[in-house]
């Protein structure tokens, strides 16, 4: 009822915007047709109206974004590979890369943040349901018996899960394991920061505790070594930066609890195997670096890695180099590498400066998580995870536009 009461203070255009941002998280994650054909076009129309009325607000983000897009275009101009349709190179990324600009044109107040938070809670519950469904489906395939969602947590069934080892990895919540691991990791970090925030209502904290626990359970089952490492680094940083003894206790208990419960399981053994390296990854890293050495300035063209590996290394089954730095270097050269990481560095800097705001602190932790994970995966390739994260990032960066005057032409 409070949310409905809050909506009364907005006009029709503003309430349409509120409805759209409420529906977008679920649309990005699970209703792609609704998101692509209705929600995103409607968001663009509402943004256009807002710009027409108030002018276009431009912050630091647009300046760095412009340089990055320019470097993409340069890499494609100097590519050796034919480009049938330039829109194929840009359209998959336009929907997420412009979210901060879109949100910057609106006043994103605490009420709107709560609207999005409610949507994220609903989306996360559905995400967990899909994860549990995948587990029960695999149980039936392996053991031949039906199990309910709660039955999964019985001791004998957890033992069966452990015995499956690397044969079962929770990967089908989203189309790829990379997206599943990143969204789960980002969700857990976000909910943990909301949980330990003093201003969070006790009822919300009670809801978040089982949601964090379920998220950890499903994240472990992804067996994503890169996300394991990124998650532990971010949690460790939070432990170091959070001086409050109570908060420190919660974070340390969370970390110790995870390590204790899973100490002698295949999941810990898989994490330890990071130091042993990965033959396939080593080969693909060598391929990417060889491509960069032959094309050091502008690369071989944005998103052309699969063509280049076929030409240089006869390894076209590698769709991307599984490392964001190597993707930028091989596809866009030094220019693209500097433009991308300058943009991400500027984002981290702005979030750090405004970390006293909860949404900025949350997104700072999530972006750092993503940047660490990008050492093992090229997150930009996967649309859902990028769209989900940059949608939330738009909320966090919107405060950078508040005092700006719109530019009219």
Provide mean pLDDT, rounded. 83
Structural class: mainly alpha
Largest β sheet strand count, sense and barrel closure: none
Helix content: over 70%
How many helix segments? Answer: 18
The beta-strand count equals 0
Strand content: under 5%
Q: Assign an overall shape.
A: globular
Query: What's the gyration radius in Å?
Result: 22 Å
Order of helices and strands: HHHHHHHHHHHHHHHHHH
Distance between the terminal alpha carbons, to the nearest Å? 42 Å
Q: Spans with pLDDT under 50 lasting ≥5 residues? A: none
Characterise the protein shown here.
With 409 residues, the chain is an all-alpha fold. 72% of the residues lie in helices and 0% in strands. The relative contact order is 0.14.
């Amino acid at each position: 009822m409070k949310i409905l009461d809050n909506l009364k203070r907005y006009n029709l255009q503003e309430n349409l915007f509120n409805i759209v941002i409420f529906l977008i998280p679920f649309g990005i994650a699970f209703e792609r047709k609704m998101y692509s054909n209705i929600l995103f076009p409607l968001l663009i129309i509402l943004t256009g109206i807002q710009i027409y009325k108030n002018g276009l607000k431009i912050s630091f983000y647009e300046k760095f974004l412009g340089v990055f897009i320019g470097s993409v275009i340069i890499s494609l101009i100097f590519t050796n590979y034919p480009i049938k349709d330039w829109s194929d190179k840009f359209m998959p990324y336009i929907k997420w890369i412009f979210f901060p600009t879109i949100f910057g044109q609106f006043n994103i107040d605490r009420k709107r943040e709560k609207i999005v938070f409610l949507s994220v809670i609903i989306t996360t519950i559905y995400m967990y349901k899909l994860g549990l469904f995948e587990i029960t489906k695999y149980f039936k395939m392996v053991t031949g018996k039906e199990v309910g969602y709660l039955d999964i947590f019985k001791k004998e069934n957890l033992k069966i899960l452990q015995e499956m080892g690397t044969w079962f990895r929770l990967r089908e919540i989203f189309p790829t394991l990379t997206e599943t691991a990143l969204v789960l990791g980002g969700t857990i970090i976000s909910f943990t920061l909301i949980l330990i925030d003093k201003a969070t209502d006790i009822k919300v904290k009670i809801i978040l505790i089982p949601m964090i626990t379920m998220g950890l359970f499903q994240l472990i089952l992804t067996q994503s070594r890169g996300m394991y490492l990124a998650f532990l680094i971010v949690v460790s940083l939070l432990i170091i930066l959070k001086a409050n003894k109570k908060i420190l206790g919660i974070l340390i208990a969370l970390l110790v609890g995870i390590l204790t419960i899973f100490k002698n399981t295949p999941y810990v053994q898989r994490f330890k195997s990071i130091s042993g390296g990965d033959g396939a990854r080593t080969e693909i890293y060598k391929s990417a670096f060889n491509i960069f050495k032959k094309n050091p300035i502008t690369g071989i063209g944005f998103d052309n890695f699969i063509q280049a590996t076929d030409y240089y290394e006869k390894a076209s089954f590698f769709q991307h180099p599984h490392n964001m730095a190597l993707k930028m270097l091989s596809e866009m050269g030094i220019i693209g590498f500097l433009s991308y990481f300058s943009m991400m560095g500027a984002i981290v800097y702005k979030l750090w400066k405004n970390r006293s705001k909860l949404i900025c602190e949350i997104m700072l932790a999530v972006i750092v998580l993503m940047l660490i994970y990008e050492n093992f995966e090229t997150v930009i390739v996967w649309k859902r995870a990028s769209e989900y994260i940059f949608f939330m990032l738009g909320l966090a960066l919107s405060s950078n536009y508040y005092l700006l005057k719109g530019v009219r032409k």
